[in-house]
Amino acid sequence: MAALLEAIEIKRKMVFEFEDAPYVCMESDVSTPTARGGQTLVRLKMRNLITGAVFDKTFKANDKFKEPDVSLVPASFLYNDGDGYHFMDQESYETLTLDEAKVGDATDFLTEGLMLQMHKYNGNPIALQLPIFVELEVTETEPAARGDFSSGSGTKAAKVETGMTLRVPPFVKQGERIKISTETREFAGRV
Q: Which of 6, 33, 39, 150 is the most buried (most CB within 10 A)?
């Protein structure tokens, strides 16, 4: 039998089962009552690992959840085609396929050979966990004019090899490899 977790024990990035589906906690906030006899409440911002839906829900501190049969396996991105996005499980060397809905906006970071983690629920692939940073090549950007900070922020638009566009500092040139945060989708440095 799977271990039970109390709501008050659930912290950021923990996985738990709610209404027969696996969820990951994105934020956890504990509210302790000021009056005697009040109940401690836990507000969780959670994402369904199967559908990707995100919502807030409040639970009593002693509400219990099962630990789901979710595992993280190392995988590498191979390619995408009409059938979906294909990855290689680095432990079993089998090819795992996810449809576009499950990959979501992670497509902005997927390049051939990218190492990442794949969530499996009851043995089936359901979601991706990207690395914190990815390195991508800048394919298009305007050259920065000397002293041009008219945009106010001192940044310019750049398009990377996956087709994503983001703001970068003026010194970044076409053909350079840059580091991008997968959580904030922002420039994090040159490689």
A: 6
